[in-house]
Design a protein that fits this description.
- It is elongated and about 80 Å long.
- The two termini are about 40 Å apart.
- A 6-stranded mixed β-sheet has the order 6-7-8-3-9-10, with helices on both faces. Strands 2-1-4-5 form a 4-stranded antiparallel β-sheet.
- The protein folds into 2 domains: about 220 residues, P-loop containing nucleotide triphosphate hydrolases (Rossmann fold, 3-Layer(aba) Sandwich), CATH 3.40.50.300; about 90 residues, Alpha-Beta Plaits (2-Layer Sandwich), CATH 3.30.70.260.
- By secondary structure, the chain is of the alpha/beta class.
- Helix 6 links the parallel strand 7 and strand 8.
- About 35% of the residues lie in helices and about 30% in strands.
- It binds adenosine-5'-triphosphate and magnesium ion (MG).
Length: about 300
């Protein structure tokens, strides 16, 4: 339903994205996860026909976004990063207007405006001026216009940014409910959001895709690594050195708990052996081991580990 093949976009001689390749099948909700300036918006603007790639190709529902731009656009609904809402219009007039400029006939507009008002829970704001709506409700109007012409594909650029926690929950539910019937690609830099809504995640960093997987499999992939928490008595600088020396240990950080013991957080290769050797090392130095347990890695940590370069 969405195909992107080797998309590259230069602004001057700066590559905002390079070699971006992925696809999304019908009904899938694909999360596009990356920090600021990763290239999320750039990719989405290419997919929605707002600008051409420097090289590479993309298609929506089988239509090339450059060569068959009009057809491709007919099949995609787009919620841009900042929704260009006409604030002096009433919600219903704005939606009708968007229907008209998309070439829908009067009957279809009537029917679809009623539908999307319900889908996006805008019933109480039907005749309200957009200027009077809160950010969250404007965002819903943005979603409403994106699905108005019944596109199979939805491209949502940070749909929950800047809205309050209660409305975030509702917006996520709305997006989830749109999946299945629509193929959705949504960008975010909020990690829990991806595991909540998406079937699959693409992690993009500095214009390149660094990982593509299900939220669950991404977790499991890094299960090759695990996080171990230890409480130890002893001089932290020496303890850190000793723990780092244990084979399989990749990183050690610590926090002083103030009661004579220090908590250490260790990222290591998975396995009983590493844990056994950590314990052994502490005992050999005559320090006391007060706690040793493994902690699951959050998607947040996975994201950081995938996007942080070695030297960082
Ligand atoms: N029109 C433009 N002209 C020049 N550079 C641009 C333009 N649009 C984007 N860029 C650059 O391309 C890179 C990717 O930007 P993009 O907006 O795609 O990132 P993003 O992942 O959407 O980030 P954010 O999370 O901040 O929205 C950035 O370094 C940005 O400065
Ligand atoms: Mg962006």
């Amino acid at each position: 339903m969405i195909e992107a093949n080797n998309l590259t976009k230069y602004f001057g001689d700066f590559p905002a994205i390079s070699g971006v390749t992925f696809s999304a099948s019908k009904g899938e909700i694909l999360g596009f996860l990356g920090p600021n300036a990763a290239g999320k918006t750039t990719t989405m603007r290419i997919l929605t026909g707002f600008m051409p790639p420097s090289s590479g190709a993309a298609s929506i529902a089988g239509y090339d976004v450059v060569a068959q731009s009009l057809e491709a656009r007919r099949h995609v609904g787009y919620l841009p990063e900042t929704v260009p809402l006409y604030t002096d219009m009433k919600v219903k007039d704005y939606l009708r207007f968007m229907g008209t400029i998309r070439g829908m006939d009067t009957k279809a507009i009537q029917r679809r405006v009623n539908d999307v008002i319900q889908t996006c829970h805008l019933e109480s704001y039907y005749t309200a001026y957009i200027s009077k709506l809160s950010k969250g409700f404007r965002q819903r109007v943005g979603v409403a216009q994106a699905i108005l012409h019944e596109p199979e594909v939805l491209v949502l650029d940070e749909p929950t940014v800047g809205i309050d926690p209660i409305q975030v929950v509702e917006t996520r539910q709305l997006i989830k409910s749109l999946g299945g019937e629509h193929t959705i690609i949504l960008s975010t830099h909020i990690l829990p959001e991806v595991s909540m809504i998406c079937n699959r995640v693409i992690i993009i960093h500095e214009g390149e895709i660094v990982a593509v997987d299900t939220p669950q499999a991404l977790g499991e992939r890094l299960q090759g690594t695990e996080r171990i928490q230890m409480d130890v008595t002893g001089p932290p600088s020496q303890v850190v050195g000793a723990l780092r020396a244990v084979p399989g240990v990749q990183d050690v950080t610590y926090t002083d708990r103030g009661d004579g013991r220090t908590s250490y957080s260790i990222v290591s290769r998975r396995g009983d052996e590493v844990r056994a050797n950590l314990a052994k090392s502490v005992v050999q130095h005559n320090w006391s081991l007060l706690r040793l347990e493994t902690a699951a890695m959050s998607l947040e940590e996975i994201f950081l580990r995938l996007t942080t370069t070695e030297e960082a």
